[in-house]
Amino acid sequence: MINQKIYFIWKDGAYRMSPTPEESNIKFTSKVGHGIYEIGSWLTTDLPTGINSVNIWINNLTDLEHSRAPDGMFGIGNAHWVLIKGDYVFIGTEYVEEQQVIMTREQLLYVLEQYKTFLEGDYNDPNNPPDPIDVEFIAEGQEAIDMYNGLEGSQLVPYAC
Does the pTM exceed 0.85? Predict the structure, then answer.
């Protein structure tokens, strides 16, 4: 398991997500790896309506059989693929080859609950930052693709076949 955090950095009058306690850039992935970048990118770009989007994802993940995509093919959003097979979730992008993650549904639900807490908060003080989001995932990069593609009945990562 890989354990990391998503931090909130004050910039331009609001909090922004960062994989390090100080402002970071994708060029510095050697410090933290690509997986945490992908999770943060997915949260900020594919959950555009904030709490409402988070609630939809929580409901879909909690009751996959009755969700909008009971086969687990949640498809693409803003360049991010989300594929679910059983208790495994694959989140990735076709634009950065290494930026792929596989985690359990339980791990993703935990991240979403923490993100929802952040969205519900009133964080307008640069001296009072929100708590970081604890993130745990199984693998990143090619290892994540291989693990997901190896799951029985998986939809396969379409851009890696």
Answer: yes
What whole-number distance in Å separates Cα of residue 83 and Cα of residue 43?
A: 15
Question: In angstroms, rounded to a whole number, what is the distance separating the alpha carbons of residues 53 and 38?
Answer: 18
Class of residue 114 by CB neighbours under 10 A (exposed 0-12, middle 13-18, buried 19+): buried
Confidence of residue 1 (pLDDT cuts 50, 70, 90): very high
> What's the token pair of residue 32?
């933290």
Burial of residue 56, with CB atoms counted within 10 A of its CB: 0-12 exposed, 13-18 middle, 19 or more buried: middle
- Amino acid identity of residue 84, one-letter, is I
* 64 closest CA partner among 108, 113, 116: 108
